[in-house]
Amino acid sequence: MSYTMVTDESDDAMYSSIYNESPSAADNIGSGCTSRGKGSVLKKGPWTSTEDGILIDYVKRHGEGNWNTVQKHTSLARCGKSCRLRWANHLRPNLKKGAFSKEEEQLIVEMHARMGNKWAQMAEHLPGRTDNEIKNYWNTRIKRRQRAGLPLYPPGTHVEDLHWSQEYHPSTSNVTDRRRHQDILQLGNSKANVLFDDLTFANVLFEDLNFATSLLPVASDISDMLGTGASSYMSPILPSHSNIRQAFQSPEHFQNAAPQKNPRSCSISDHPLYGNQHRTDVMIQDSHHTFTDGMVPTSKPLFGAVKLELPSFQYSEASGFDQWTTPSTPQSDLLDSVDTYIQSPPPLEIDEPDCFSSCDTGLLDMLLHEAKIKASAKHSFSSTTCATDGTQDVPRGGDTHNVTSGAGGNSSAFAVVKTEELDQVWEPKRADVIRPDVLLESSWQDQQSRFGIVRDSSSLNDALALLLGG
DNA sequence: AAGGGGTGCAACCGCTGCGGG
DNA sequence: TCCCGCAGCGGTTGCACCCCT
């Protein structure tokens, strides 16, 4: 769909009356364009072809820049910001209009996986496309995928990771660094992202693929259960190797299905526009997570969160993936899921008082944490902490793992995973879990237990009851 | 045919960085 | 060093159009 907001000359009169002469004209003066040109109210709203012509003529004569002087030199009653935006997004030469090509779409996805909401940077690598265009495309895509309950990044998208240990040093980071990571944190409802200083596509390299892939089954179940938002981004769930192996028929499950030559390395993008000549192997060093039982992990907060998504074969409606990937076997789909890691940024401060780092902005996490603290006075929770480095075994055999989403922000929800049941057939059902009180609904509980996810209902209900005023 | 919701694009708004005075 | 204005960026909103009922 393509619209043009340029109005014809007849519309000029209409918009003139709307924006310049109507009693509410003054209300249309935004804070960004508060100046008044030539004593008249600056116009807002859609541009007319006449205005476009004036602006084009101005740029031809004066060049780009000095946008605030446009209204001084022309009859254009537009603020500089508006002029710049109009020129950049619609009038400048070599703009490519129309739908994004498949290559462009894939490049956007991959770039977003790498840099987050850096629309301007993305636009630099998409000739003829504007940041606004890319941003709109992405936002639309997010909505669409979230509605469909699909993961943000399709299987096969190779999300790069920043080598945090090298790129980010909390103790020495400056304001800009922090802001960059704040930007990462603000990547929408469910976007975890990575930063790259150069434009190379990188691999996500795990020190232990077994461990990395082991995150998937448990998290997939949970993320599926948690709903759309949570399905895109989950805090990592870090069961032990042995636990996870129970979830699969063989520990070589992923290796066998791995398309990569190097089992330690997830595939890199072979993007048509970039090729694969640039590779940067990076590692997910850690992950950051919280625990609904309020226990503080004994190890340091984990850094790279992991995008956890259901294997694509679970999506019966996942035909939308066709545009991204060729049909694959369930096994390879499982592997594909490994590719689509999202990472959360590291905590901005090392000395976080507890597991809730500044990166953990999930409201529910905080509420749950508070509730847990309250509840801990009454109960001792059976759940245990998880090994953070993937090498320590977590107590099992009836133990449950309380898991919350962390870096996902809005994807705050939780579940308790009974790992022994993970080898059951997955029945992707999405619980409509939005609020803690909803979580108390028995149907939710039933739904979980149907596909091998149960929660510590007594303790959790107590916690939630406390939280909700109980 | 009408209307209501969905979709996508254009534009606005607020904020930040940077450079000059 | 501080202040101010400009440019740019990313988030948000407004609205026209489409589609379904």
Automatic annotation (TrEMBL):
Entry GO terms, CC: nucleus
Entries under SUPFAM superfamilies matching the protein: Homeodomain-like
GO molecular function, one term: DNA binding
InterPro entries the record matches: Homeodomain-like_sf, Myb_dom, SANT/Myb
Main location class: nucleus
Keyword Repeat: yes
Gene3D superfamilies: Homeodomain-like
Domain named HTH myb-type: residues: 39-91, 92-146
PROSITE patterns: HTH_MYB, MYB_LIKE
Pfam families: Myb_DNA-binding
UniProt protein name: Transcription factor
Species this chain originates from: Brassica campestris (Field mustard)
